[in-house]
UniProtKB/TrEMBL annotation:
Record's keyword annotation contains Transmembrane helix: yes
Chain segments annotated as transmembrane: 9-25, 31-48, 53-71, 132-153, 174-192, 204-222, 248-269, 275-296, 317-335, 355-383, 395-418, 438-455
Protein's UniProt keywords contain Ligase: no
Keywords: Membrane, Transmembrane, Transmembrane helix
Protein name per the record: Citrate transporter-like domain-containing protein
Length: 456
């Protein structure tokens, strides 16, 4: 019975997500309450298979949230209404695999990966090449690109000493991952920030892209100098693969054209139906992916890859379900009490010094990531804390730091998904990865804060 439930969780999750999306059109109190009621068994079922870290985080949010709920003396029948504020984020995560799948169906990932090893004589050149490749893939297939590029590097660097290989892989892939997500409309941190600050994505885009490029180039300069003295040869007697620059450039241009069209559709749908950014992206992803696959004449591949990937990923959403639903209950309960004002006091106390506020946000992310708190959990609390500051400090500046501070932790969060995945793939200590990438995380956050200060 338990096995059957685990294999078919995607049906249960999807039915709740569809009900929630339907209610965005009908705006029915009955449907909204029904979604809240269903969120409770959804949380309980997911809790059983969530990882230890997320069970701990979820338990803390539920215990503190329930204490705040009791303190606010609200009736118990209001509990379901406190469970739905993060449902748009879960729905958004559930459709992301379809965008990943259309990129895989078009074989863009394989072709771009051929960029990595052609005409590379030392690790300095390989550093830039592998970072650029990871950056491109992450932009379109997100987390799925990380094990893909790490596996390729592991196989091709077997002749390199493990200490150097581990250092190289944990630097180039994690750092490219972090900077690529800064401006991606499919990154959940970006979507949360756009909706909570009320600043349009198009306003954020040039500044986030500028930050991304500056940090990426800075890392390339340092990485190339660090590794350029180490020669590189592909394993075995295989000749280095050659590829057509024209063909690869065409593939990259096709990807960016697709992303541009996707953004236009998101903005049009959002304005037409008066939807927030997260819901607009959620609604557009599947029809856009279907249309793109038909244009490429890759419908059958897309359908096969997409169904398997979506079903598998949705069945493994337990960690995010536990985190988001417990966070929703905590945040909603906190908003009903006066404790939120107490938490806000340190930020309000320095409201005359906007730069200190931005630095406080950055440091909060770093400290929380060190003890295993997911940046989404941190931003869930921070957005409630800094809301009163929007009239005193430019929301665009705060949003820049909310995004860059959160994403920078992907390189140093010892218990985070990306660092843990890298540690497992390369069989190295996650604390060593954290220590190695800390200067980069501080540099990344510093650039984001500097741009935020310029926008004040």
């Amino acid at each position: 019975m338990i096995h059957f439930v685990r294999q078919n969780l995607y049906l249960f999750y999807t039915s709740i997500f569809l009900l929630f999306i339907s209610n965005t059109y009908f705006d029915s109190e009955v449907l909204g309450y029904a979604v809240g009621i269903l969120a409770i068994p959804m949380l309980l079922i997911s809790f059983m298979d969530a990882s230890k870290l997320f069970r701990i985080l979820g338990s803390l949010f539920i215990i503190v949230g329930f204490s705040l709920f009791l303190y606010s003396e609200l009736p118990f029948y209001n509990i379901p209404l406190h469970m739905t504020s993060t449902m748009p984020l879960l729905t958004f995560l559930s459709v992301l695999p379809w965008m990943n799948s259309v990129v895989r169906a078009g074989r863009f990932d394989r072709r771009i990966n051929s960029l990595m090893n052609d005409n590379v004589s030392n690790l300095g050149k390989l550093y830039v090449r592998s970072s650029f490749t990871t950056y491109l893939l992450i932009t379109f297939i997100n987390l799925s690109a990380l094990p893909l590029t790490q596996d390729v590097l592991q196989k091709n660097m077997k002749k390199i000493k493990k200490r150097i290989r581990d250092s190289f892989i944990s630097r180039t892939t994690l750092r490219a991952f972090a900077v690529a997500l800064a401006w991606s409309p499919m990154e959940i941190i970006v979507a949360i920030t756009v909706d909570t600050t009320g600043v349009s994505y198009l306003t954020y885009l040039p500044w986030l892209f500028l930050c991304s490029v500056l940090v990426l180039f800075g890392d390339w300069i340092v990485g190339k100098r660090r590794f350029e003295t180490i020669p590189f040869d592909l394993i075995g007697d295989k000749p280095k693969r050659t590829f057509s620059i024209r063909q690869i450039t065409l593939q990259i241009l096709q990807l960016f054209l697709a992303l541009f069209l996707f953004l236009i559709l998101v903005i049009l749908i959002g304005n037409l139906f008066h939807l927030n950014f997260i819901l607009s992206v959620t609604i557009v992803i599947i029809p856009f992916a279907i249309g793109w696959s038909l244009m490429m004449r890759r419908w059958h591949s897309f359908k096969a890859i997409g169904w398997h990937t979506w079903k598998s990923r949705t069945n493994r959403m337990q960690n995010f379900v536990v985190l988001f639903l417990s966070l929703a209950f905590f945040s909603s309960s906190l908003n009903k009490t006066s404790f939120l004002e107490v938490i806000q006091q340190p930020f309000i106390a320095v409201s005359e010094y906007p730069m200190i506020i931005l630095l406080l946000i950055q440091m909060t992310y770093l400290l929380m990531s060190m003890i295993g708190v997911h940046p989404i959990a941190t931003i869930g609390v921070l957005i409630e804390v800094v809301k009163p500051l929007y009239e005193l400090v430019n929301p665009l500046s705060i949003g820049m730091v909310l995004v860059t501070g959160a994403i920078a932790t992907a390189t140093v969060g010892t218990y985070g998904v990306t660092v843990t995945m890298t540690a497992m793939n390369t069989q190295q200590n996650p604390y060593r990865i954290t220590l190695r990438n800390m200067p980069f995380a501080l540099f990344y956050g510093g650039v984001g804060t500097f741009i935020g200060c310029l926008l004040l």
